[in-house]
Amino acid sequence: MTYAYIGKDRRRVEDPRLLVGRGGYIADLRLPGMLHAAILRSPVPHARIRSVDATEALRLPGVVAVLTGEDCKAKLNPCMNFGPATIAQYPLAVDKVRYVGEAVAAVVAENRYLAEDGVDLLEVDYETLPPVTDPMAAMEPESALLHEEHGSNIGYERTFEFGDVNAAFAGADLVVEDTLHWGRSAGVPMETTGAVAQPGFNGVLEIYCNSLNFSYFSFLIAATLRIPSNKLTMKPVPAGGSFGSKLAAHKVPTLAGFLALQVGRPVSYVEDRLDNLMNSDHHGCDRFYEARMGFRADGTITGLDIDVVDDYGAYMQFGVGHHGNAFSQVVGPYRFRDVRYRIRAVLTDKCQQGAYRGFGSEVHNWVLERLVDQGAARLGLAPEEIRRCNFIQPDQFPYTIPGGNLYDSGDYPAVLDKALSMIDLNKWRAEQKRLREEEGRHIGIGLATTQERSVFSSTEFWSMVEKPVLPVTSSPESATVTIDPTGQFQLLLHCQSMWGNSPETVGATVLAEEFGIPPESVNVRYADSAHALPSTGPGGSRYTVMVAGAIRGASRKLRKKLIDIAAHTLEEAPEDLELVDARVQVRDAPETGLTLAELAATAYFFALSLPEGMTSGLEESYTYDHPYTTLPAPDGSDFGVFYPIMGHACHIVVLEVDPDTGIPSFLDYVAVHDAGTIVNPRSLGGHVTGGATQGIGTTLYEELAYDEDGQFQSSTFRDYLIPTANEAPAFRIGHVQTPSPFTEYGIKGGGEGGRMVAPAAVSAAIDDALREYGMRVRRLPVKPADIVATVRAGRSAEGAV
Amino acid sequence: MTTSKASTTSIAAKYGTARRTVTVHVNERDVTREVSTRTTLADFLRDELGLVSVHLGCEHGECGSCTVLFDGHSVRSCLMLAVQTDGHTVETVESLAGNPAELHPIQEAFAEEQGLQCGFCTPAMVLRTKEIIETGRDRELTDAEVRHEISGILCRCTGYQNIVRAVQSAQRRCRGGGRDA
User: Which parts pass through the membrane (chain B) (predicted)?
Assistant: First the structure.
């Protein structure tokens, strides 16, 4: 299928306004009489709050109010929570603090400077408690408890088994095992999360925010604030980037709303970088694995056994969906059927986990690919060979995996072939040998694949829970398309905008495709929660697929109305007409027709010229539900279909590691992705390079570190090292397009694959570069010091021989 | 334990309310304002002058999103005080084009190459490109040179690849200097 606009490299329609600095971010919003909030954060990991003395702060001219956990306890309900009900959280800590950086008090003042001054003047009396930092020790009965009401530091524990892993391993020729640790990193977009709240007219609280998905959960914020949901209007303010960090980010808008209600004036709370790094609620996964994989001698994988301890931090408001997510692609692109997965989610004195690009699947893929690489090395197979011999084949789709999720379509050999065609591995392998022998230089080649599940179903969030509180099954998206009286297009989206996601380019491209109008001519608006139709918002690589589905649905209705008006006017049968290039014309006599502007004028101004029973205007809405999801089984034997729109990617990395400094540098990087039908190749490419660079950051540089006393070590960009242009490689990108049979136009999501595969590919390349020293990346980030230590140990072992 | 606490008497000293009048040449016009001596240049530009293209990404001098041109050279406006700019020239991206329909060639280059996604580091990248061109070399920079030149500004979205292309394209578009070149 070829399209006129979809699939073409076109400029993004968002960019001109961003290039002149008018992105309309939350920090740019000013309301008359607006106050600013700053937050006092806990300097200790675990303590009882005896008292907060605000006397001095309130004496400072310009400080309007100080609010604490006591105020929250008295006036709020606990925040929304998809984890155990016994683990409650408020926007400001109530009774106890449970990590360094947890919010203790908010100071509201005439400007941010004065608010920060007020924070300086607060006096808090803490009764310190033993810090709980090691997740293994936290599970011991003698450990201090984070949440006495919960009675344990284990937030969730369960084992799932599909097939018979013991039998699969008994029949294996080789079982490899590994102890792996994926360290904490986070999305940390350049723009932090923020909100401005104001008590509006008629007792309606208005909260402007750049949090995503609010149209999905604003009623839960109203519940926390103890106001009826129709007395809260959440107003969308475009988000810059998110990468997960603004997904359902509810505490920032809740806090701003609470402060505005208390002081009766508009209040702005925009996280600064310290707030964002230490208290974003969106630290990424922090997992300790004992993992095993069985192989037959020919490389066929027989089974997978995972025992994972996940260091969730102090709260679990987003539940354990990160593991449900991993189950969407638990076997990767491979055919094996036997899987066991034990998970223990542990509470420690750290910031809670939320979402980061991959949402747990990227971690699982790294583990899977680490095991596959180990199997390949032990069996003497090349990385591409072992993968090829295990791939699910193109004629096997749709393919149901262990656990119940379904892969819609794919051609994994084609992606691998495309990647291999873009790089001469034989040449690099010869060069690797030559450089090692002649110059003592260490080049490594890494190859890895990933599945890229897209378009989540909300069953993901509760299917692993035995008695889910909120077993929702809807995750719709809506669009309203209006043609105005002059024939110009308005597109109303019913969820948050996020510039990084190209929401308007996607919307305008689909409308251009449906009506033959220039994409740049479309005006895009975003509904607030008081006007929004059912919607879920960006996340889980769902946006492009879902918005395209909603817009196409509305467009179909609108096209029918246009054709009916034209048929009536031209006295032709509707089936003899077609809409081509912004004009409805007679199929066999295209010179006879009416432009959209002519039809629009009729629709708005000439009611007596409309077909009988038709009402004036040209506006249609459509709500597009998840294209394919099924109910999970209550007993955990089957998660149902919940993430069936399945992309795929293969990355091949060539890098050199300096064994004396441990510093890797990239020599080549090939990334081939299959995200179904591509809407805009260059935009998708940007997601691939951006995502892969984040994956490289996770692998080599980024760490949200806590020391053994629970002190946070990464509160600035001097400590939390995100890649600069110097660290990012030059990527060479290839695309394969296997359309989805379930979505409009066959589009699949493509926002996360880069980060989901880069860690496995880079880890493999580092191993390969230093193979003779026994290098094996088992812990991320792998730092230069770790690499140097391995080289030194390898050299002295060599010397000893 | 108890957190440290400032005494009431020290408040005035610590949180001094001293104000000073500054005259700065901003985006080709002189502006005179009375500012608090502790107001950063970034906050002055954003809050006093409404130049919201100056984005605050970290406020500790690492991310570079608040980059502006100070006497033609890029500085991090979160690390300067407004009073330091008295008598100097400051340029923000608003000086290149205030109207999205009339982009400067550098901005055209970024749009063409999609050298941006969320737009937050974009004004800084555009200004840095202007500085690269104006303090210029008359040949197009290599990939590695461009990467080095922009490495003081963090971008979390693009992986930099399209930004590198945009800088090179901007160089070509502006070769010979001036926006009509």
Answer: none
